[in-house]
Design a protein that fits this description.
This protein is an alpha+beta fold and about 300 residues long. The chain has twelve helices and ten strands. It has helices at about 5-20, 25-30, 35-50, 55-70, 75-85, 95-105, 110-130, 145-155, 160-175, 195-205, 245-260, 280-290; strands at about 135, 145, 185, 190-195, 215, 220, 225, 230, 235-240, 265-270. Strands 5-8-9-10 form a four-stranded mixed β-sheet, sandwiched between helices. It has a two-stranded antiparallel sheet with strand order 1-2. Helix 6 (about 95-105) packs antiparallel against helix 7 (about 110-130). The longest helix is centred in the middle third of the chain and has 21 residues, at about 110-130. The chain binds zinc ion. Zinc ion binds near residues 139, 140, 163 and 164.
Length: about 300
């Protein structure tokens, strides 16, 4: 490059550096390829300034990174490192190389310090960008809204989207009852129940003309999932059939009973040993809550 052309390119780099125009990025990128380190230095510096004026961060970082990491002229490298810093999180893909440069004993001290400070600034920018980053469902990894996250955090201490929230609920319930959903049993009144014990209860209630609602949707009580098996509206009573006998299940059961109590809910609990003597157990437990059977005339079973 002759002196005249060098002078023109230098003037142009300075001019573009003052222009505050993001449209200058391609021309400045071109100037970064000049053999003159002085021109490269001015162009890198000008690209850094454009960060505040809406220059495309990806293109800018792509142009600056090779100069920042590998320019044969250390001062030019230093300017490019400083310019790279202005693009913050967009420079994240180069963090590893910047760390290598900061640790490179053959590089100039001021280049190493500059690489270190640029890497730190990029890391900070990445951290700052995180809270506004989308919440991800822990199950399907799709984005979840703040409302979905709050709801699932309360119930499961995890972030789930609404769809996975519902599916997780079903899985937990099936785990609780050790009954798969497709193994439903039809009670006499046509209600689909999930165990033999529940079917006996449904049939007994039907035989005694006691209205019931079965399996209302889950509700959350104190952050725990509660599914009442049966609700008897005329007595304002819940009937829970505690079908399993494992330790895990018992812990869940005690927790649930405790929650019912806290909420002031009236609950009748029935267990597998009540199954053969439902005709005795049910009226006794109902009477405990002052609930007496309508005189249906159907014999106890
Ligand atoms: Zn999901």
């Amino acid at each position: 490059m002759d002196r005249h052309n060098h002078h023109l390119a230098l003037q142009r780099a300075l001019e573009l550096g003052r222009a505050e125009d993001p449209g200058a990025l391609p021309e400045l990128t071109q100037l970064l390829t000049m053999p003159s380190s002085e021109i490269r230095r001015l162009a890198a510096s000008a690209i850094g300034k454009l960060a505040g004026f809406g220059a495309d961060p990806t293109s800018a970082v792509q142009a600056l990174a090779p100069i920042a990491l590998r320019d044969p002229h250390p001062q030019t490298q230093q300017y490019a490192l400083k310019a790279l810093k202005s693009y913050g999180a967009a420079a994240q893909p180069h963090l590893h190389d910047l760390d290598d440069l900061a640790a490179n004993e053959r590089a100039k001290d001021y280049v190493r310090r500059s690489a270190h400070s640029t890497a730190e600034a990029i890391r900070e920018a990445v951290r700052m960008a995180e809270p506004s980053a989308v919440l991800r469902c822990a199950r399907c990894h799709q984005s979840a809204s703040a409302e979905e996250a709050a709801r699932s955090q309360q119930a499961f201490q995890r972030v789930f989207c609404d769809r996975c929230f519902d599916e997780t609920f079903l899985e937990r319930r099936n785990f609780d009852t050790k009954v798969e959903l497709n193994k439903t049993i039809i009670a006499k009144a046509g209600t689909l129940v999930q165990s033999d014990g529940e079917r006996l209860i449904a049939d007994w209630l039907t035989a005694h003309n006691i209205a019931y609602r079965y399996d209302e949707r889950y509700r959350i009580l104190s952050g725990h999932a509660i599914r009442p098996d049966f609700y008897l509206p005329e007595f304002d009573l819940y009937v829970e059939y505690w079908g399993m006998d494992t330790a895990d299940y018992k812990i869940g059961m005690l927790k649930k009973q405790q929650l019912y109590q806290q909420e002031g809910k009236r609950v009748i609990s029935l267990y597998p040993h009540d199954k053969p003597r439902l005709g005795v157990a049910m009226p006794a437990k109902l009477a405990f809550f002052g609930a007496h059977l309508p005189s249906s005339g159907v014999g106890d079973q």
